[in-house]
Design a protein that fits this description.
The protein is built from three helices and five strands, in the order βββββααα. With 89 residues, the protein is of the alpha+beta class. The chain has one domain: Hypothetical Cytosolic Protein, Chain: A (2-Layer Sandwich), CATH 3.30.1230.10. A three-stranded antiparallel sheet has the order 4-3-5. The longest helix has 14 residues, at 75-88. The radius of gyration is 13 Å and the shape is globular. 20% of the residues are buried.
């Protein structure tokens, strides 16, 4: 049986390389629409984030997602990430 490679991605805030399934993807389309991509397959420029309150707050303060996605990330996205974190507990 062939062993499959685990896809690895880097968190834009912590710079930690983790398995793709352990991170959450935020995607921006060419039209500038930003959304949380739960399946990890949505088209557009993506950025990965560790799902932790400190990391989300740091991303918001440093505008790391804005820089990586090259668009202004609305506050609703950060709220949605915090809600996802609460529901995952």
């Amino acid at each position: 049986m062939k062993v499959r490679k685990t896809p690895m991605r880097t968190c834009v805030v912590t710079r930690e390389v983790k398995p793709k399934k352990d991170l959450i993807r935020i995607v921006a389309t060419k039209q500038g629409a930003v959304s949380v991509d739960l399946k990890g397959k949505a088209p557009g420029r993506g950025a990965y984030l560790t799902l932790a309150k400190k990391v989300i707050e740091k991303a918001k303060a440093s505008k790391a997602l804005d820089k990586k996605l090259k668009v202004e990330v609305p506050l609703e996205i950060y709220q949605q990430l915090l809600e996802l974190l609460e529901s995952a507990k």
